[in-house]
Amino acid sequence: MAGNAAAGVSRLVAGTAAVAGALFIVIPRFAFPPCASEGHTVTRCADTAAAEMVLGGLLLAAGLVAPVARRSWVLLAELAALCVALAAAWFLPDVFGYCPSPRMRCHYGMVPAIRFTAGLAAAVLISAAAFRANAADLRGEPS
User: What is the pTM of this model?
Assistant: First the structure.
Protein backbone atom coordinates (compact mmCIF):
# COMPACT_ATOMS: atom_id res chain seq x y z
CA MET A 1 0.00 0.00 0.00
CA ALA A 2 2.81 2.39 0.88
CA GLY A 3 4.48 1.83 -2.46
CA ASN A 4 1.21 2.40 -4.30
CA ALA A 5 0.64 5.74 -2.54
CA ALA A 6 4.18 6.91 -3.28
CA ALA A 7 3.89 5.77 -6.89
CA GLY A 8 0.55 7.54 -7.23
CA VAL A 9 1.99 10.77 -5.84
CA SER A 10 5.00 10.42 -8.14
CA ARG A 11 2.71 9.98 -11.16
CA LEU A 12 0.59 12.94 -10.06
CA VAL A 13 3.67 15.14 -9.72
CA ALA A 14 4.99 13.98 -13.08
CA GLY A 15 1.68 14.51 -14.84
CA THR A 16 1.08 17.92 -13.29
CA ALA A 17 4.58 19.15 -14.15
CA ALA A 18 4.38 17.80 -17.70
CA VAL A 19 0.93 19.26 -18.39
CA ALA A 20 1.81 22.63 -16.84
CA GLY A 21 5.08 22.71 -18.80
CA ALA A 22 3.32 21.88 -22.04
CA LEU A 23 0.71 24.58 -21.39
CA PHE A 24 3.45 27.13 -20.63
CA ILE A 25 4.84 26.38 -24.07
CA VAL A 26 1.51 26.24 -25.94
CA ILE A 27 -0.23 29.27 -24.38
CA PRO A 28 2.31 31.97 -25.33
CA ARG A 29 3.22 30.31 -28.63
CA PHE A 30 -0.12 29.27 -30.10
CA ALA A 31 -3.14 30.13 -27.93
CA PHE A 32 -2.36 33.77 -27.07
CA PRO A 33 0.85 34.74 -28.89
CA PRO A 34 2.37 38.18 -28.31
CA CYS A 35 1.69 40.90 -30.83
CA ALA A 36 5.23 40.59 -32.22
CA SER A 37 4.15 37.32 -33.86
CA GLU A 38 1.69 39.32 -36.00
CA GLY A 39 4.36 41.59 -37.41
CA HIS A 40 4.07 44.37 -34.84
CA THR A 41 7.14 45.72 -33.12
CA VAL A 42 8.67 43.52 -30.44
CA THR A 43 7.33 44.48 -27.04
CA ARG A 44 7.85 43.35 -23.48
CA CYS A 45 5.19 40.68 -23.84
CA ALA A 46 7.44 38.85 -26.33
CA ASP A 47 10.12 38.65 -23.64
CA THR A 48 7.55 37.36 -21.16
CA ALA A 49 6.37 34.75 -23.66
CA ALA A 50 9.93 33.59 -24.32
CA ALA A 51 10.65 33.31 -20.59
CA GLU A 52 7.43 31.36 -20.01
CA MET A 53 8.30 28.96 -22.84
CA VAL A 54 11.77 28.32 -21.36
CA LEU A 55 10.21 27.70 -17.96
CA GLY A 56 7.66 25.43 -19.63
CA GLY A 57 10.46 23.38 -21.15
CA LEU A 58 12.08 23.00 -17.73
CA LEU A 59 8.78 21.94 -16.16
CA LEU A 60 8.15 19.48 -18.98
CA ALA A 61 11.60 17.96 -18.46
CA ALA A 62 10.98 17.75 -14.71
CA GLY A 63 7.70 16.00 -15.40
CA LEU A 64 9.51 13.41 -17.47
CA VAL A 65 12.11 12.87 -14.72
CA ALA A 66 9.63 12.67 -11.81
CA PRO A 67 8.56 9.03 -12.32
CA VAL A 68 12.10 7.82 -11.66
CA ALA A 69 12.18 9.45 -8.21
CA ARG A 70 12.30 6.44 -5.90
CA ARG A 71 13.15 8.09 -2.59
CA SER A 72 10.65 10.20 -0.74
CA TRP A 73 13.10 13.03 -0.08
CA VAL A 74 13.82 13.28 -3.82
CA LEU A 75 10.11 13.50 -4.54
CA LEU A 76 9.60 16.17 -1.88
CA ALA A 77 12.61 18.13 -3.16
CA GLU A 78 11.17 17.95 -6.66
CA LEU A 79 7.79 19.10 -5.35
CA ALA A 80 9.45 22.09 -3.70
CA ALA A 81 11.42 22.93 -6.85
CA LEU A 82 8.31 22.68 -9.00
CA CYS A 83 6.37 24.98 -6.65
CA VAL A 84 9.22 27.52 -6.87
CA ALA A 85 9.15 27.25 -10.68
CA LEU A 86 5.38 27.77 -10.69
CA ALA A 87 5.74 30.81 -8.44
CA ALA A 88 8.32 32.14 -10.90
CA ALA A 89 5.85 31.54 -13.75
CA TRP A 90 3.24 33.55 -11.83
CA PHE A 91 5.56 36.54 -11.37
CA LEU A 92 7.41 36.50 -14.73
CA PRO A 93 4.84 38.78 -16.42
CA ASP A 94 5.44 41.38 -13.71
CA VAL A 95 9.21 41.07 -14.08
CA PHE A 96 9.39 41.29 -17.89
CA GLY A 97 6.15 43.21 -18.43
CA TYR A 98 3.33 42.93 -20.91
CA CYS A 99 1.13 45.23 -22.97
CA PRO A 100 -0.91 47.68 -20.90
CA SER A 101 -3.77 47.71 -23.39
CA PRO A 102 -6.64 45.41 -22.36
CA ARG A 103 -7.33 44.76 -26.08
CA MET A 104 -4.04 42.93 -26.61
CA ARG A 105 -4.00 39.13 -26.49
CA CYS A 106 -1.12 39.02 -24.06
CA HIS A 107 -3.07 41.20 -21.64
CA TYR A 108 -6.45 39.48 -21.76
CA GLY A 109 -5.28 35.97 -22.62
CA MET A 110 -1.67 35.00 -22.11
CA VAL A 111 -1.04 36.44 -18.65
CA PRO A 112 -4.31 35.25 -17.07
CA ALA A 113 -3.97 31.79 -18.65
CA ILE A 114 -0.39 31.44 -17.40
CA ARG A 115 -1.37 32.56 -13.91
CA PHE A 116 -4.39 30.25 -13.82
CA THR A 117 -2.25 27.31 -14.94
CA ALA A 118 0.48 28.12 -12.41
CA GLY A 119 -2.02 28.50 -9.57
CA LEU A 120 -3.88 25.31 -10.39
CA ALA A 121 -0.68 23.28 -10.79
CA ALA A 122 0.73 24.67 -7.53
CA ALA A 123 -2.49 23.74 -5.70
CA VAL A 124 -2.28 20.18 -7.05
CA LEU A 125 1.39 19.87 -6.11
CA ILE A 126 0.86 21.26 -2.61
CA SER A 127 -2.02 18.82 -2.14
CA ALA A 128 0.22 15.97 -3.31
CA ALA A 129 2.90 17.01 -0.82
CA ALA A 130 0.33 17.14 1.99
CA PHE A 131 -1.03 13.72 1.03
CA ARG A 132 2.47 12.28 0.89
CA ALA A 133 3.36 13.73 4.31
CA ASN A 134 0.06 12.53 5.79
CA ALA A 135 0.53 9.02 4.41
CA ALA A 136 4.03 8.88 5.90
CA ASP A 137 2.73 10.08 9.28
CA LEU A 138 0.04 7.39 9.30
CA ARG A 139 2.69 4.74 8.68
CA GLY A 140 4.95 6.22 11.36
CA GLU A 141 7.73 6.92 8.87
CA PRO A 142 9.66 10.11 8.36
CA SER A 143 8.39 11.96 5.32
Answer: 0.86
DSSP 113: H
Distances (CA, A) of 20 to 28, 47, 125, 140: 13, 19, 11, 33
Structural domain including 92 reads 2-139
Largest Cα–Cα distance of the chain, in whole Å? 60
C-alpha closest to that of 71 among 134, 126, 139, 143: 143
- What interhelical angle do 2-26 and 111-139 show, nearest 10? 170
Q: Structural domain tally of the chain?
A: 1
SS3 143: coil
pLDDT value at residue 9: 79
CA atoms within 13 A on the CB side of 76: 12
Of these ranges, 18-27, 64-73, 102-111, the one predicted with the greatest mean pLDDT is 18-27
Between the CA of residue 46 and those of 10, 92, 107, what are the distances in Å? 34, 12, 12
